[in-house]
Amino acid sequence: MGAATALYSATCHVLGKYSNGNLYPVNLSAVVGLSGWLPCSRTLRNRMERSIQAVRCAVSLPVLLCHGLGDDVVAYTHGERSAQVLNSVGFRDLTFRTYNRLGHYTVPEETDEVCHWLTARLGLQGSQS
C-alpha cells in the first residue's frame, strides 16, 4: 500500500486537494513508488483537465516508479499502466524502471536506483552518507 499511497499523494499534491474535496496540506518534492499502482486512475484525467495549475504542477514533480516483472502481489501491468496514466495527464518528470527477476520485494539494484534518483532529483550530491 505504500506505493499506492505515494502515487495518490502525488495526484492530491498537484490538484491541491483530496478526491473528497478537502485541501491537501502537504508540499511534495519528489515521489517514489515501488511495486505499486495508482488509485483513482479512472477519474484522474477529468480532475486534471479542470485545472491548468494542476497540470503545471504535475510537469515539475519528479516521480520514480519501479516494478518487477515477477511481482505476484501487484501485477507488473498495474505498475506499467499507472506510469502511462500519470504521463498522459501531465506528469513529465516520470521515470519507470523495470526489473526482470524482481517480485514484490526489493533488491540492492532497486535500492541503489532509488538512492541515486533521490540524490539527483533533490540536489543531495554534496550530502554525507
Could you describe the 3D structure shown?
The protein is of the alpha/beta class and 129 residues long. It has a single domain, classed as Alpha/Beta hydrolase fold, catalytic domain (Rossmann fold). It is built from five helices and three strands. The chain has helices at residues 2-15, 41-49, 52-60, 76-88, 108-121, and strands at residues 31-34, 63-68, 94-99. The chain has a three-stranded parallel β-sheet, with helices on both faces. α4 (76-88) links the parallel β2 (63-68) and β3 (94-99). α1 (2-15) crosses α3. It is globular and about 40 Å long. The two termini are 28 Å apart. The model has no long low-confidence stretch (mean pLDDT 94).
Largest sheet: 3 strands, parallel
The residue ranges in which pLDDT falls below 50 over 5 or more consecutive positions are none
End-to-end distance = 28 Å
Overall CATH class? Alpha Beta
How many beta strands in the DSSP annotation? Answer: 3
Approximately what portion of the residues adopt beta-strand conformation? 5-15%
The total domain count is: 1
Under CATH, the topology can be stated as Rossmann fold
CATH homologous superfamily caption: Alpha/Beta hydrolase fold, catalytic domain
CATH architecture: 3-Layer(aba) Sandwich
Question: Oligomer, anyone?
Answer: single chain
With strands numbered from the N-terminus, the spatial order across the biggest sheet is 1-2-3
Structural class: alpha/beta
Helical content class: 40-55%
Rounded mean pLDDT is 94
The rounded Rg comes to: 15 Å
